[in-house]
Protein backbone atom coordinates (compact mmCIF):
# COMPACT_ATOMS: atom_id res chain seq x y z
CA UNK A 1 0.00 0.00 0.00
CA UNK A 2 1.37 3.45 -0.86
CA UNK A 3 1.87 6.05 1.87
CA UNK A 4 -0.90 8.19 0.37
CA UNK A 5 -3.58 5.50 0.44
CA UNK A 6 -2.37 4.32 3.84
CA UNK A 7 -2.70 7.88 5.10
CA UNK A 8 -6.29 8.10 3.81
CA UNK A 9 -7.16 4.84 5.61
CA UNK A 10 -5.44 5.92 8.84
CA UNK A 11 -7.06 9.35 8.77
CA UNK A 12 -10.49 7.73 8.30
CA UNK A 13 -9.82 5.33 11.20
CA UNK A 14 -8.70 8.16 13.50
CA UNK A 15 -11.70 10.33 12.54
CA UNK A 16 -14.07 7.41 13.13
CA UNK A 17 -12.47 6.72 16.51
CA UNK A 18 -12.72 10.40 17.43
CA UNK A 19 -16.42 10.45 16.59
CA UNK A 20 -17.06 7.16 18.39
CA UNK A 21 -15.40 8.33 21.61
CA UNK A 22 -17.09 11.73 21.34
CA UNK A 23 -20.48 10.03 21.03
CA UNK A 24 -19.59 7.80 23.99
CA UNK A 25 -18.80 10.78 26.21
CA UNK A 26 -22.05 12.52 25.19
CA UNK A 27 -23.97 9.31 25.83
CA UNK A 28 -22.50 9.12 29.33
CA UNK A 29 -23.48 12.76 29.87
CA UNK A 30 -27.02 11.87 28.73
CA UNK A 31 -27.05 9.04 31.26
CA UNK A 32 -26.04 11.62 33.88
CA UNK A 33 -29.03 13.82 32.98
CA UNK A 34 -31.34 10.79 33.23
CA UNK A 35 -29.86 9.94 36.65
CA UNK A 36 -30.42 13.51 37.83
CA UNK A 37 -34.12 13.14 36.96
CA UNK A 38 -34.24 9.77 38.74
CA UNK A 39 -32.33 11.16 41.72
CA UNK A 40 -34.64 14.14 42.10
CA UNK A 41 -37.61 11.79 42.43
CA UNK A 42 -35.99 8.97 44.40
CA UNK A 43 -35.63 8.82 48.17
CA UNK A 44 -37.67 8.24 51.29
CA UNK A 45 -40.02 10.97 50.07
CA UNK A 46 -40.84 9.86 46.51
CA UNK A 47 -42.02 12.40 43.99
CA UNK A 48 -43.47 11.56 40.59
CA UNK A 49 -42.28 13.26 37.40
CA UNK A 50 -45.78 14.65 36.92
CA UNK A 51 -45.77 16.28 40.39
CA UNK A 52 -42.36 17.76 39.75
CA UNK A 53 -43.43 19.17 36.39
CA UNK A 54 -46.58 20.57 37.89
CA UNK A 55 -44.66 22.32 40.67
CA UNK A 56 -42.11 23.64 38.20
CA UNK A 57 -44.81 25.14 35.97
CA UNK A 58 -46.51 26.73 38.99
CA UNK A 59 -43.20 28.21 40.16
CA UNK A 60 -42.39 29.57 36.71
CA UNK A 61 -45.82 31.10 36.32
CA UNK A 62 -45.65 32.47 39.93
CA UNK A 63 -48.71 30.51 41.07
CA UNK A 64 -49.10 29.54 44.75
CA UNK A 65 -48.23 25.98 45.70
CA UNK A 66 -50.41 23.89 48.02
CA UNK A 67 -49.05 23.23 51.50
CA UNK A 68 -48.03 19.69 50.53
CA UNK A 69 -46.47 20.94 47.31
CA UNK A 70 -44.51 23.48 49.33
CA UNK A 71 -42.91 20.64 51.30
CA UNK A 72 -42.28 18.70 48.08
CA UNK A 73 -40.76 21.76 46.45
CA UNK A 74 -38.46 22.29 49.42
CA UNK A 75 -37.24 18.68 49.25
CA UNK A 76 -36.83 18.93 45.50
CA UNK A 77 -35.08 22.30 45.29
CA UNK A 78 -33.26 22.66 48.60
CA UNK A 79 -32.29 19.09 49.52
CA UNK A 80 -32.06 16.92 46.42
CA UNK A 81 -31.07 19.34 43.64
CA UNK A 82 -27.98 20.75 45.43
CA UNK A 83 -26.70 17.30 46.42
CA UNK A 84 -27.09 16.10 42.82
CA UNK A 85 -24.99 19.01 41.55
CA UNK A 86 -22.49 18.42 44.35
CA UNK A 87 -22.33 14.70 43.44
CA UNK A 88 -21.48 15.61 39.85
CA UNK A 89 -18.78 18.14 40.84
CA UNK A 90 -17.19 15.89 43.46
CA UNK A 91 -17.37 12.81 41.21
CA UNK A 92 -15.74 14.66 38.32
CA UNK A 93 -13.00 16.13 40.54
CA UNK A 94 -12.17 12.81 42.22
CA UNK A 95 -12.20 10.80 38.99
CA UNK A 96 -10.10 13.33 37.08
CA UNK A 97 -7.68 13.49 40.04
CA UNK A 98 -7.38 9.70 39.92
CA UNK A 99 -6.77 9.77 36.19
CA UNK A 100 -4.07 12.46 36.56
CA UNK A 101 -2.45 10.62 39.48
CA UNK A 102 -2.34 7.32 37.60
CA UNK A 103 -0.88 9.07 34.56
CA UNK A 104 1.70 10.87 36.67
CA UNK A 105 3.01 7.83 38.54
CA UNK A 106 2.46 5.65 35.45
CA UNK A 107 0.58 3.07 37.46
CA UNK A 108 -3.08 2.19 36.95
CA UNK A 109 -3.33 1.14 40.60
CA UNK A 110 -2.58 4.62 41.91
CA UNK A 111 -5.17 6.68 43.74
CA UNK A 112 -5.07 10.29 44.99
CA UNK A 113 -5.12 8.87 48.53
CA UNK A 114 -1.69 7.40 47.82
CA UNK A 115 0.04 10.68 48.65
CA UNK A 116 -1.86 11.21 51.87
CA UNK A 117 -4.40 13.82 50.74
CA UNK A 118 -7.48 12.11 52.21
CA UNK A 119 -5.63 11.01 55.33
CA UNK A 120 -4.36 14.56 55.94
CA UNK A 121 -7.90 15.91 55.55
CA UNK A 122 -9.31 13.25 57.88
CA UNK A 123 -6.70 13.90 60.58
CA UNK A 124 -7.37 17.64 60.53
CA UNK A 125 -11.16 17.15 60.41
CA UNK A 126 -11.05 14.67 63.31
CA UNK A 127 -9.05 17.14 65.41
CA UNK A 128 -11.48 19.97 64.65
CA UNK A 129 -14.54 17.79 65.33
CA UNK A 130 -13.10 16.81 68.72
CA UNK A 131 -12.32 20.48 69.52
CA UNK A 132 -15.77 21.69 68.41
CA UNK A 133 -17.30 19.04 70.62
CA UNK A 134 -15.14 20.10 73.56
CA UNK A 135 -15.79 23.85 73.13
CA UNK A 136 -19.56 24.38 72.58
CA UNK A 137 -18.96 28.05 71.66
CA UNK A 138 -17.36 26.84 68.41
CA UNK A 139 -20.43 24.82 67.45
CA UNK A 140 -22.05 27.59 65.39
CA UNK A 141 -19.15 27.75 62.96
CA UNK A 142 -18.46 24.03 63.40
CA UNK A 143 -19.14 22.74 59.90
CA UNK A 144 -17.12 25.54 58.28
CA UNK A 145 -14.23 24.97 60.69
CA UNK A 146 -14.25 21.25 59.88
CA UNK A 147 -14.34 21.88 56.12
CA UNK A 148 -11.63 24.54 56.35
CA UNK A 149 -9.34 22.46 58.52
CA UNK A 150 -9.85 19.39 56.29
CA UNK A 151 -8.85 21.47 53.28
CA UNK A 152 -5.74 22.78 55.02
CA UNK A 153 -4.91 19.32 56.39
CA UNK A 154 -5.07 17.79 52.93
CA UNK A 155 -2.79 20.41 51.41
CA UNK A 156 -0.41 20.21 54.39
CA UNK A 157 -0.08 16.44 53.92
CA UNK A 158 0.75 16.90 50.23
CA UNK A 159 3.23 19.64 51.04
CA UNK A 160 5.08 17.34 53.47
CA UNK A 161 5.10 14.51 50.93
CA UNK A 162 6.41 16.80 48.18
CA UNK A 163 9.06 18.23 50.48
CA UNK A 164 10.37 14.75 51.31
CA UNK A 165 10.27 13.61 47.67
CA UNK A 166 12.06 16.69 46.36
CA UNK A 167 15.45 16.02 44.76
CA UNK A 168 17.78 18.28 42.77
CA UNK A 169 16.43 16.56 39.62
CA UNK A 170 12.77 17.24 40.54
CA UNK A 171 10.15 15.23 42.42
CA UNK A 172 11.06 11.56 42.65
CA UNK A 173 7.93 9.46 42.12
CA UNK A 174 9.14 6.48 44.19
CA UNK A 175 9.98 8.76 47.14
CA UNK A 176 6.61 10.46 46.66
CA UNK A 177 4.75 7.18 47.07
CA UNK A 178 6.85 6.08 50.06
CA UNK A 179 6.42 9.47 51.75
CA UNK A 180 2.68 9.14 51.05
CA UNK A 181 2.65 5.78 52.85
CA UNK A 182 4.39 7.37 55.86
CA UNK A 183 2.03 10.37 55.93
CA UNK A 184 -0.97 8.02 55.64
CA UNK A 185 0.35 6.01 58.60
CA UNK A 186 1.01 9.15 60.66
CA UNK A 187 -2.45 10.53 59.93
CA UNK A 188 -3.97 7.15 60.82
CA UNK A 189 -2.15 7.19 64.15
CA UNK A 190 -3.33 10.74 64.81
CA UNK A 191 -6.97 9.84 64.03
CA UNK A 192 -6.63 6.77 66.28
CA UNK A 193 -5.36 8.87 69.17
CA UNK A 194 -8.08 11.51 68.72
CA UNK A 195 -10.77 8.82 68.49
CA UNK A 196 -9.43 7.15 71.65
CA UNK A 197 -9.63 10.39 73.60
CA UNK A 198 -12.86 11.75 72.08
CA UNK A 199 -16.24 11.45 73.78
CA UNK A 200 -19.08 9.42 72.25
CA UNK A 201 -20.59 12.33 70.33
CA UNK A 202 -17.31 13.40 68.79
CA UNK A 203 -16.41 9.78 68.01
CA UNK A 204 -19.68 9.33 66.17
CA UNK A 205 -19.15 12.52 64.19
CA UNK A 206 -15.58 11.54 63.29
CA UNK A 207 -16.73 8.11 62.12
CA UNK A 208 -19.56 9.63 60.09
CA UNK A 209 -17.25 12.22 58.53
CA UNK A 210 -14.68 9.63 57.44
CA UNK A 211 -17.43 7.64 55.72
CA UNK A 212 -18.25 10.54 53.41
CA UNK A 213 -21.68 11.97 52.89
CA UNK A 214 -23.64 14.35 50.69
CA UNK A 215 -26.05 15.09 53.55
CA UNK A 216 -26.27 18.72 54.63
CA UNK A 217 -25.28 20.06 51.22
CA UNK A 218 -26.93 23.39 50.40
CA UNK A 219 -26.72 25.77 47.44
CA UNK A 220 -24.20 27.92 49.28
CA UNK A 221 -21.70 25.04 49.45
CA UNK A 222 -22.54 23.95 45.90
CA UNK A 223 -21.86 27.39 44.46
CA UNK A 224 -18.54 27.50 46.32
CA UNK A 225 -17.44 24.07 45.05
CA UNK A 226 -18.90 24.69 41.59
CA UNK A 227 -17.03 27.97 41.15
CA UNK A 228 -13.74 26.28 42.08
CA UNK A 229 -14.45 23.08 40.14
CA UNK A 230 -14.73 24.82 36.77
CA UNK A 231 -11.12 26.10 36.61
CA UNK A 232 -9.86 22.83 38.16
CA UNK A 233 -11.63 20.76 35.48
CA UNK A 234 -10.30 23.15 32.83
CA UNK A 235 -6.76 22.61 34.11
CA UNK A 236 -7.21 18.83 34.15
CA UNK A 237 -8.24 18.99 30.48
CA UNK A 238 -5.22 21.19 29.77
CA UNK A 239 -2.94 18.46 31.22
CA UNK A 240 -4.06 15.80 28.71
CA UNK A 241 -1.10 16.13 26.36
CA UNK A 242 1.48 16.25 29.14
CA UNK A 243 0.01 13.11 30.76
CA UNK A 244 0.24 11.31 27.42
CA UNK A 245 3.90 12.26 27.21
CA UNK A 246 4.57 11.27 30.82
CA UNK A 247 3.11 7.82 30.09
CA UNK A 248 6.27 7.20 28.05
CA UNK A 249 8.53 8.02 31.00
CA UNK A 250 9.94 11.29 32.31
CA UNK A 251 13.07 11.33 30.13
CA UNK A 252 11.07 10.60 27.02
CA UNK A 253 8.56 13.32 27.97
CA UNK A 254 11.38 15.84 28.46
CA UNK A 255 12.91 14.92 25.12
CA UNK A 256 9.52 15.49 23.50
CA UNK A 257 9.45 19.03 24.82
CA UNK A 258 7.64 18.77 28.14
CA UNK A 259 8.80 20.82 31.11
CA UNK A 260 8.55 17.71 33.28
CA UNK A 261 9.25 19.19 36.72
CA UNK A 262 6.77 22.03 36.18
CA UNK A 263 4.02 19.74 34.92
CA UNK A 264 4.57 17.24 37.73
CA UNK A 265 4.26 20.00 40.30
CA UNK A 266 1.18 21.44 38.60
CA UNK A 267 -0.49 18.03 38.39
CA UNK A 268 0.23 17.17 42.02
CA UNK A 269 -1.05 20.49 43.37
CA UNK A 270 -4.13 20.33 41.16
CA UNK A 271 -4.90 16.81 42.39
CA UNK A 272 -4.27 17.95 45.96
CA UNK A 273 -6.52 20.99 45.57
CA UNK A 274 -9.36 19.04 43.91
CA UNK A 275 -9.36 16.17 46.37
CA UNK A 276 -8.98 18.56 49.32
CA UNK A 277 -11.98 20.55 48.08
CA UNK A 278 -14.15 17.46 47.62
CA UNK A 279 -13.06 15.89 50.90
CA UNK A 280 -13.45 19.09 52.92
CA UNK A 281 -17.15 19.35 52.09
CA UNK A 282 -18.19 15.73 51.67
CA UNK A 283 -15.73 13.72 53.78
CA UNK A 284 -13.72 10.78 52.46
CA UNK A 285 -15.27 9.24 49.37
CA UNK A 286 -13.02 6.37 48.47
CA UNK A 287 -12.33 4.43 45.29
CA UNK A 288 -13.95 6.88 42.83
CA UNK A 289 -10.48 8.09 41.85
CA UNK A 290 -9.31 4.53 41.36
CA UNK A 291 -12.27 2.81 39.74
CA UNK A 292 -13.54 5.45 37.31
CA UNK A 293 -10.27 5.87 35.34
CA UNK A 294 -10.22 2.08 34.94
CA UNK A 295 -13.76 1.95 33.61
CA UNK A 296 -13.02 4.91 31.33
CA UNK A 297 -9.79 3.28 30.09
CA UNK A 298 -11.71 0.12 29.19
CA UNK A 299 -14.29 2.12 27.24
CA UNK A 300 -12.20 4.92 25.72
CA UNK A 301 -8.62 3.64 25.63
CA UNK A 302 -5.51 5.07 27.29
CA UNK A 303 -5.21 8.31 25.30
CA UNK A 304 -5.77 11.10 27.85
CA UNK A 305 -7.30 13.21 25.08
CA UNK A 306 -10.49 11.17 25.55
CA UNK A 307 -9.74 9.52 28.87
CA UNK A 308 -9.70 12.72 30.93
CA UNK A 309 -13.10 14.11 29.80
CA UNK A 310 -14.55 10.61 30.00
CA UNK A 311 -13.35 10.36 33.61
CA UNK A 312 -15.00 13.68 34.43
CA UNK A 313 -18.36 12.59 33.04
CA UNK A 314 -18.23 9.01 34.35
CA UNK A 315 -17.11 10.25 37.80
CA UNK A 316 -20.24 12.40 37.99
CA UNK A 317 -22.38 9.49 36.78
CA UNK A 318 -20.91 7.07 39.34
CA UNK A 319 -21.47 9.52 42.16
CA UNK A 320 -25.08 10.07 41.07
CA UNK A 321 -25.65 6.29 41.07
CA UNK A 322 -23.99 5.97 44.49
CA UNK A 323 -26.09 8.85 45.85
CA UNK A 324 -29.33 7.29 44.60
CA UNK A 325 -28.35 3.92 46.12
CA UNK A 326 -27.39 5.54 49.42
CA UNK A 327 -30.82 7.23 49.66
CA UNK A 328 -33.02 4.42 48.41
CA UNK A 329 -31.49 1.18 49.72
CA UNK A 330 -32.81 1.39 53.30
CA UNK A 331 -35.30 4.30 53.39
CA UNK A 332 -35.72 6.43 55.42
CA UNK A 333 -32.12 5.67 56.46
CA UNK A 334 -29.40 7.19 54.35
CA UNK A 335 -26.17 5.23 54.01
CA UNK A 336 -23.04 7.42 53.86
CA UNK A 337 -22.04 7.62 50.20
CA UNK A 338 -18.43 6.66 50.98
CA UNK A 339 -19.68 3.24 52.10
CA UNK A 340 -21.47 2.74 48.77
CA UNK A 341 -18.46 3.78 46.66
CA UNK A 342 -16.12 1.63 48.79
CA UNK A 343 -18.49 -1.34 48.62
CA UNK A 344 -18.27 -1.18 44.83
CA UNK A 345 -14.65 -0.02 44.61
CA UNK A 346 -12.89 -2.38 47.02
CA UNK A 347 -13.92 -5.63 45.27
CA UNK A 348 -13.08 -4.00 41.95
CA UNK A 349 -9.63 -3.06 43.27
CA UNK A 350 -9.05 -6.66 44.36
CA UNK A 351 -10.12 -7.79 40.91
CA UNK A 352 -7.57 -5.41 39.35
CA UNK A 353 -4.81 -6.68 41.60
CA UNK A 354 -5.64 -10.28 40.70
CA UNK A 355 -5.82 -9.42 37.01
CA UNK A 356 -2.55 -7.47 37.21
CA UNK A 357 -0.87 -10.43 38.90
CA UNK A 358 -2.11 -12.72 36.17
CA UNK A 359 -0.76 -10.38 33.50
CA UNK A 360 2.51 -9.80 35.44
CA UNK A 361 1.87 -6.04 35.42
CA UNK B 1 26.21 22.87 14.61
CA UNK B 2 27.02 20.97 17.84
CA UNK B 3 30.08 21.64 19.97
CA UNK B 4 30.84 20.00 23.29
CA UNK B 5 33.94 21.32 25.05
CA UNK B 6 35.86 19.91 28.02
CA UNK B 7 32.88 18.22 29.64
CA UNK B 8 33.24 16.87 33.16
CA UNK B 9 30.37 15.17 34.95
CA UNK B 10 30.46 14.05 38.57
CA UNK B 11 27.75 12.16 40.37
CA UNK B 12 27.93 11.64 44.15
CA UNK B 13 31.60 12.57 44.15
CA UNK B 14 32.30 9.98 41.47
CA UNK B 15 33.68 11.15 38.18
CA UNK B 16 31.55 9.79 35.32
CA UNK B 17 32.83 11.83 32.39
CA UNK B 18 36.21 13.52 32.18
CA UNK B 19 37.32 16.08 29.68
CA UNK B 20 35.13 15.02 26.76
CA UNK B 21 34.98 17.18 23.67
CA UNK B 22 32.89 16.46 20.63
CA UNK B 23 32.08 18.41 17.49
CA UNK B 24 29.36 17.61 14.96
CA UNK B 25 28.27 19.08 11.66
CA UNK B 26 25.10 18.43 9.71
CA UNK B 27 25.11 14.95 8.20
CA UNK B 28 27.75 13.55 10.60
CA UNK B 29 27.37 10.06 12.02
CA UNK B 30 29.31 9.72 15.26
CA UNK B 31 29.62 6.33 16.90
CA UNK B 32 30.48 6.06 20.58
CA UNK B 33 31.97 2.75 21.63
CA UNK B 34 33.50 1.50 24.83
CA UNK B 35 33.29 -1.04 27.62
CA UNK B 36 30.19 -1.52 29.80
CA UNK B 37 29.74 1.29 32.33
CA UNK B 38 32.32 3.59 30.75
CA UNK B 39 29.83 6.46 30.46
CA UNK B 40 28.53 6.08 26.88
CA UNK B 41 24.85 6.43 27.75
CA UNK B 42 25.63 9.22 30.23
CA UNK B 43 27.47 11.07 27.48
CA UNK B 44 24.46 10.65 25.20
CA UNK B 45 22.11 11.92 27.92
CA UNK B 46 24.43 14.89 28.45
CA UNK B 47 24.24 15.67 24.73
CA UNK B 48 20.44 15.33 24.94
CA UNK B 49 20.29 17.84 27.80
CA UNK B 50 18.96 15.25 30.23
CA UNK B 51 22.08 15.45 32.42
CA UNK B 52 23.65 18.69 33.50
CA UNK B 53 27.42 18.63 33.15
CA UNK B 54 29.53 19.63 36.17
CA UNK B 55 31.78 21.80 34.00
CA UNK B 56 32.39 22.51 30.35
CA UNK B 57 30.13 23.93 27.69
CA UNK B 58 27.69 22.49 25.17
CA UNK B 59 26.69 24.64 22.21
CA UNK B 60 23.90 23.56 19.89
CA UNK B 61 23.11 25.65 16.81
CA UNK B 62 25.28 28.46 18.19
CA UNK B 63 23.33 28.59 21.46
CA UNK B 64 24.24 27.25 24.85
CA UNK B 65 22.24 24.04 25.44
CA UNK B 66 21.04 25.36 28.83
CA UNK B 67 19.39 28.31 27.11
CA UNK B 68 17.13 26.13 24.99
CA UNK B 69 13.55 25.69 26.12
CA UNK B 70 12.34 22.09 26.20
CA UNK B 71 9.78 22.81 23.49
CA UNK B 72 12.22 24.41 21.08
CA UNK B 73 14.86 21.76 21.71
CA UNK B 74 12.37 18.94 21.07
CA UNK B 75 11.98 20.12 17.48
CA UNK B 76 15.74 20.07 16.93
CA UNK B 77 16.99 16.98 18.75
CA UNK B 78 15.44 13.62 19.52
CA UNK B 79 16.62 10.79 21.71
CA UNK B 80 15.89 7.10 21.39
CA UNK B 81 16.65 5.36 24.68
CA UNK B 82 17.77 1.77 25.03
CA UNK B 83 14.71 0.59 26.94
CA UNK B 84 11.53 2.21 25.74
CA UNK B 85 8.65 1.57 28.06
CA UNK B 86 5.03 2.49 27.63
CA UNK B 87 2.94 2.16 30.76
CA UNK B 88 -0.55 2.26 29.30
CA UNK B 89 -2.23 0.69 26.30
CA UNK B 90 -1.19 3.25 23.70
CA UNK B 91 -1.78 2.37 20.07
CA UNK B 92 1.14 2.70 17.65
CA UNK B 93 -0.49 5.51 15.68
CA UNK B 94 -1.30 7.44 18.89
CA UNK B 95 2.33 7.26 19.92
CA UNK B 96 3.49 8.53 16.54
CA UNK B 97 0.84 11.28 16.59
CA UNK B 98 2.23 12.44 19.92
CA UNK B 99 5.55 13.16 18.18
CA UNK B 100 3.78 15.69 15.96
CA UNK B 101 1.89 17.37 18.79
CA UNK B 102 4.24 20.39 18.95
CA UNK B 103 3.97 21.08 15.19
CA UNK B 104 1.40 23.41 13.66
CA UNK B 105 -0.27 21.32 10.96
CA UNK B 106 -3.59 19.71 10.09
CA UNK B 107 -4.50 16.16 11.07
CA UNK B 108 -4.28 15.12 7.42
CA UNK B 109 -0.75 16.51 7.07
CA UNK B 110 0.51 14.78 10.22
CA UNK B 111 -1.17 11.50 9.21
CA UNK B 112 0.55 11.60 5.82
CA UNK B 113 3.98 12.20 7.39
CA UNK B 114 3.38 9.37 9.86
CA UNK B 115 2.39 6.99 7.07
CA UNK B 116 5.39 7.90 4.89
CA UNK B 117 7.78 7.17 7.71
CA UNK B 118 5.87 4.08 8.83
CA UNK B 119 6.21 2.66 5.32
CA UNK B 120 9.94 3.43 5.31
CA UNK B 121 10.48 1.66 8.65
CA UNK B 122 8.08 -1.20 7.81
CA UNK B 123 5.86 -0.52 10.80
CA UNK B 124 2.57 0.38 9.08
CA UNK B 125 1.21 -3.11 9.84
CA UNK B 126 1.56 -2.24 13.55
CA UNK B 127 -1.15 0.45 13.41
CA UNK B 128 -3.97 -0.44 15.79
CA UNK B 129 -1.65 -2.52 17.99
CA UNK B 130 -1.00 -1.78 21.68
CA UNK B 131 2.66 -0.69 21.83
CA UNK B 132 3.18 -2.79 24.98
CA UNK B 133 2.43 -5.97 23.04
CA UNK B 134 5.01 -5.29 20.30
CA UNK B 135 8.24 -7.28 20.20
CA UNK B 136 11.45 -5.50 21.27
CA UNK B 137 12.50 -4.96 17.67
CA UNK B 138 9.10 -3.67 16.56
CA UNK B 139 8.99 -1.28 19.49
CA UNK B 140 12.50 -0.04 18.73
CA UNK B 141 11.47 0.74 15.15
CA UNK B 142 8.34 2.54 16.36
CA UNK B 143 10.39 4.70 18.73
CA UNK B 144 12.95 5.52 16.03
CA UNK B 145 10.05 6.53 13.76
CA UNK B 146 8.69 8.67 16.59
CA UNK B 147 12.07 10.41 17.01
CA UNK B 148 12.35 11.11 13.26
CA UNK B 149 8.78 12.44 13.18
CA UNK B 150 9.57 14.71 16.11
CA UNK B 151 12.42 16.31 14.13
CA UNK B 152 10.67 16.73 10.80
CA UNK B 153 9.53 20.33 10.24
CA UNK B 154 5.88 20.69 9.25
CA UNK B 155 6.71 22.71 6.12
CA UNK B 156 9.04 20.10 4.63
CA UNK B 157 8.09 16.64 3.37
CA UNK B 158 10.04 13.56 4.36
CA UNK B 159 11.80 13.27 1.04
CA UNK B 160 12.97 16.91 1.01
CA UNK B 161 16.69 17.22 0.39
CA UNK B 162 17.31 19.30 3.53
CA UNK B 163 14.41 18.08 5.68
CA UNK B 164 16.70 17.27 8.62
CA UNK B 165 19.31 20.01 8.23
CA UNK B 166 20.91 20.91 11.60
CA UNK B 167 18.79 18.35 13.48
CA UNK B 168 20.37 15.95 15.94
CA UNK B 169 19.32 12.35 16.56
CA UNK B 170 20.72 10.45 19.55
CA UNK B 171 20.51 6.68 19.47
CA UNK B 172 21.31 4.43 22.42
CA UNK B 173 21.85 0.88 21.16
CA UNK B 174 19.35 1.31 18.31
CA UNK B 175 19.86 -2.14 16.85
CA UNK B 176 20.10 -4.20 20.05
CA UNK B 177 16.64 -5.76 19.60
CA UNK B 178 16.58 -5.86 15.81
CA UNK B 179 16.95 -9.01 13.74
CA UNK B 180 19.65 -9.55 11.10
CA UNK B 181 17.52 -8.00 8.32
CA UNK B 182 16.42 -4.90 10.21
CA UNK B 183 19.87 -4.20 11.72
CA UNK B 184 21.24 -3.47 8.26
CA UNK B 185 18.02 -1.82 7.07
CA UNK B 186 17.99 0.48 10.10
CA UNK B 187 21.60 1.57 9.60
CA UNK B 188 20.98 2.20 5.88
CA UNK B 189 17.93 4.26 6.78
CA UNK B 190 19.82 6.35 9.33
CA UNK B 191 22.52 6.95 6.72
CA UNK B 192 19.83 8.08 4.27
CA UNK B 193 18.60 10.62 6.82
CA UNK B 194 22.18 11.79 7.42
CA UNK B 195 22.28 12.65 3.72
CA UNK B 196 19.29 14.93 4.38
CA UNK B 197 21.32 16.85 6.94
CA UNK B 198 20.63 14.84 10.10
CA UNK B 199 23.54 14.56 12.56
CA UNK B 200 23.54 11.31 14.52
CA UNK B 201 25.30 10.22 17.70
CA UNK B 202 24.94 6.49 18.13
CA UNK B 203 26.05 4.39 21.09
CA UNK B 204 26.51 0.76 20.18
CA UNK B 205 28.31 -2.41 21.18
CA UNK B 206 27.91 -3.87 17.71
CA UNK B 207 31.07 -2.32 16.30
CA UNK B 208 31.12 -4.35 13.10
CA UNK B 209 27.62 -3.14 12.24
CA UNK B 210 27.96 0.58 13.01
CA UNK B 211 31.58 1.40 12.22
CA UNK B 212 31.25 1.26 8.40
CA UNK B 213 28.61 4.03 8.66
CA UNK B 214 30.54 6.27 11.07
CA UNK B 215 32.15 9.49 9.94
CA UNK B 216 33.70 9.81 13.39
CA UNK B 217 34.34 7.30 16.17
CA UNK B 218 34.72 8.09 19.87
CA UNK B 219 36.34 5.41 21.99
CA UNK B 220 35.50 5.81 25.67
CA UNK B 221 37.22 4.14 28.62
CA UNK B 222 36.35 4.89 32.24
CA UNK B 223 34.68 8.17 31.34
CA UNK B 224 37.60 9.44 29.29
CA UNK B 225 38.06 9.74 25.56
CA UNK B 226 40.73 7.22 24.64
CA UNK B 227 40.70 7.98 20.93
CA UNK B 228 38.65 10.00 18.50
CA UNK B 229 38.62 10.37 14.76
CA UNK B 230 37.97 8.33 11.65
CA UNK B 231 37.30 4.65 12.16
CA UNK B 232 40.49 3.55 10.35
CA UNK B 233 42.58 5.60 12.83
CA UNK B 234 40.68 4.74 16.01
CA UNK B 235 40.08 1.03 15.45
CA UNK B 236 43.53 -0.35 16.18
CA UNK B 237 44.52 -3.41 18.18
CA UNK B 238 46.28 -1.20 20.71
CA UNK B 239 43.30 1.14 21.26
CA UNK B 240 40.81 -1.71 21.53
CA UNK B 241 42.91 -3.70 23.97
CA UNK B 242 43.45 -0.55 26.08
CA UNK B 243 39.69 0.01 26.09
CA UNK B 244 38.32 -3.50 26.57
CA UNK B 245 41.23 -5.21 28.29
CA UNK B 246 41.34 -7.99 25.68
CA UNK B 247 43.30 -8.13 22.47
CA UNK B 248 41.02 -8.43 19.46
CA UNK B 249 41.85 -9.71 16.00
CA UNK B 250 41.38 -7.20 13.23
CA UNK B 251 40.64 -8.68 9.82
CA UNK B 252 41.45 -6.09 7.14
CA UNK B 253 38.74 -5.40 4.60
CA UNK B 254 39.21 -3.59 1.30
CA UNK B 255 37.94 -0.01 1.38
CA UNK B 256 36.39 -0.39 4.80
CA UNK B 257 37.20 -0.55 8.50
CA UNK B 258 38.64 -3.86 9.68
CA UNK B 259 36.34 -6.59 10.93
CA UNK B 260 36.76 -7.02 14.69
CA UNK B 261 36.71 -10.47 16.22
CA UNK B 262 38.06 -12.33 19.24
From TrEMBL, chain A:
Keyword tags: Cell membrane, Membrane, Transmembrane, Transmembrane helix, Transport
Location of the protein in the cell: Cell membrane
A single cellular component GO annotation: plasma membrane
UniProt membrane topology term: Multi-pass membrane protein
Similarity section: Belongs to the binding-protein-dependent transport system permease family. FecCD subfamily.
Species the sequence originates in: Paraglaciecola arctica BSs20135
Keyword Transmembrane helix: yes
Biological process terms in GO annotation: siderophore-iron import into cell
Name of the featured protein: Vitamin B12 import system permease protein BtuC
Automatic annotation (TrEMBL), chain B:
Alphabetized InterPro entries for the sequence: AAA+_ATPase, ABC_transporter-like_ATP-bd, ABC_transporter-like_CS, P-loop_NTPase
Gene3D superfamilies per record: P-loop containing nucleotide triphosphate hydrolases (3.40.50.300)
Location of the ABC transporter domain: 2-247
UniProt GO MF annotations: ATP binding; ATP hydrolysis activity
Function statement: Part of the ABC transporter complex HmuTUV involved in hemin import. Responsible for energy coupling to the transport system.
Highest taxon in the source lineage: Bacteria
Gene it is expressed from: hmuV
UniProt cross-references to PANTHER family, sorted A to Z: HEMIN IMPORT ATP-BINDING PROTEIN HMUV (PTHR42794:SF1)
Protein name: Hemin import ATP-binding protein HmuV
SUPFAM superfamilies: P-loop containing nucleoside triphosphate hydrolases
The keyword Transport is annotated on this UniProt entry: yes
Entry keyword set: ATP-binding, Nucleotide-binding, Translocase, Transport
Amino acid sequence: MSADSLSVTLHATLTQRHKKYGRGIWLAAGLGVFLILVGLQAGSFAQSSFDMLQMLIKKITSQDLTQQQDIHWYIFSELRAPRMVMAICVGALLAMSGCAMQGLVRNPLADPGLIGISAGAAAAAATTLALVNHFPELEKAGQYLVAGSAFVGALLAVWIVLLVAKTPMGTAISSLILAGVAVNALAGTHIGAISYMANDDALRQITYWTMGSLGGIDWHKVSFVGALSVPAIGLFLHLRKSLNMLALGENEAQCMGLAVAKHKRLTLWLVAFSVALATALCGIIGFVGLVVPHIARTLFGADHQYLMPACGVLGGVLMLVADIISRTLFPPLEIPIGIVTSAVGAPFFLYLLAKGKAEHV
Amino acid sequence: MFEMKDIFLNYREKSILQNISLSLSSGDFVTVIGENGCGKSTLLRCVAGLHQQTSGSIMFQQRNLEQWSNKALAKERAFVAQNNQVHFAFLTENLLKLARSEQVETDKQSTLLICELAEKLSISHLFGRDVRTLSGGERQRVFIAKALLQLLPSNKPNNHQLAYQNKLLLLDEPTSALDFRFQKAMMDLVQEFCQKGLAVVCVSHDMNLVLPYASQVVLLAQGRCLAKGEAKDVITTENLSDCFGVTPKLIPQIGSVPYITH
